[in-house]
Amino acid sequence: MTNIVGNEFDWRLEGLDFATNILSRVINHKSLGHAYLFHGPKSVGKFSLASRFAQILVTQDLYDGRINLDSPEAIAIERGEFPDVETISAGGICDDSKDDDVRSTRIRICQIRRLQRLAMLAPFQAKRRIFIIDIVDDLQVEASHALLKMLEEPPPNVLLFLLVQDIDAILPTIISRCQILPINPMPKNKLIEILERQFETDEITAEQIATFSRGCFGRAMDMLNDPSVMMLQKSVRSDIEDLLNAGINQRMDYAQSLASNWRQGRDSVLATIRIWMEWWSDQLYFLTKSEKNEASFDLKVEDILTALRAIDRTYEHLVLNVNPQLAIEVMMLEIPSVPFAKQDNIHG
Predict the structure, then answer these.
(1) Fewer C-beta neighbours within 10 Å, C or N terminus of the chain?
(2) 127-147 pLDDT, tens digit each
(3) How far is Cα 74 from Cα 58, in angstroms, rounded to an integer?
(4) What distance in Å separates the CA atoms of residue 287 and residue 272, rounded to the nearest whole number?
């Protein structure tokens, strides 16, 4: 058990000091809003922050202003079992028995209607009900408007945490009714230091994980705990380099091979497409910063932007269940052919 004193409270979260300092002041000053929007890239720590914020508020309410992250209530929140804290995500339950599409890639209108109903009920144990919407980018259009209505007329004793990857993809009117808190990736050197000190990771592996995770601690932990995640990164990046100057037949073979995994490995295919996006984003960074990459490519800004647009469209088409082979084949046709000369690199 501990109190928050200034910014000294240990949230037990790595790399989120900016956000936790702000929220600590919110708690200290008793200036809690009714809705918070945490935005940042995938696996940067948005859900961890929202869950920890919920733990702090609940235990502070139940323990006379003290915070106990080891309490039964805090543990129940972490496990998703506390009755006054609920996560709304794609494929979740709703009240409409006719809408049982748990495979949906977006948060459905029936889920927001269920949230609206639950929000009108009195909390069971805590002073308020807390709902974590993960992620708001995945709301169906009708669900977005239903959520907006709830934000316009917030029920008493309800707190909403909206998690967002692309803040430009959601309704501006939703943004305007929330307290906005950006969650940024941590600097590469800081992540390397944490991996080496806290997890006893060797220097080369720490460097690779920090590079491939792009400063997102959650992704770094995935790579550290599951070797297959790191293997996928290395494999896909190697494929990208091999395909940059490949002929059309080789590119079509790749598209067919990747699409063949869709039925049994949808998440893996989407993860692969995200790695394509990250690789090309890296090239834009290296080019604009005049920094050396692990390989030397004859890239132009217009080539990179063309590739990024093609990959982004492909990802969106796959999420919308467009024919996967057709979507990936079009991506392969649209990505520019780029001459390159490989050098010793991080994959080696």
Answers:
(1) C
(2) 999 999 998 988 989 999 999
(3) 8
(4) 23
Q: What mean pLDDT comes out for the span 220-239?
A: 94
* DSSP category for residue 123: P
Radius of gyration of the chain (CA): 22
Residue matched to tokens 């259009």: 141
Q: Are 215 and 16 in contact (CB under 8 A)?
A: no
Helices (H), the chain: 17-28, 46-62, 72-79, 109-119, 141-152, 172-175, 188-198, 203-213, 217-225, 227-243, 248-259, 266-288, 301-319, 324-334
Q: For the chain, what's the residue count?
A: 348
Contact predicate 92/101, CB 8 Å: no
User: What value does the mean pLDDT take over residues 76-84?
Assistant: 96
Q: From 44, 37, 51, 53, select the one nearest 14 (Cα to Cα).
A: 44
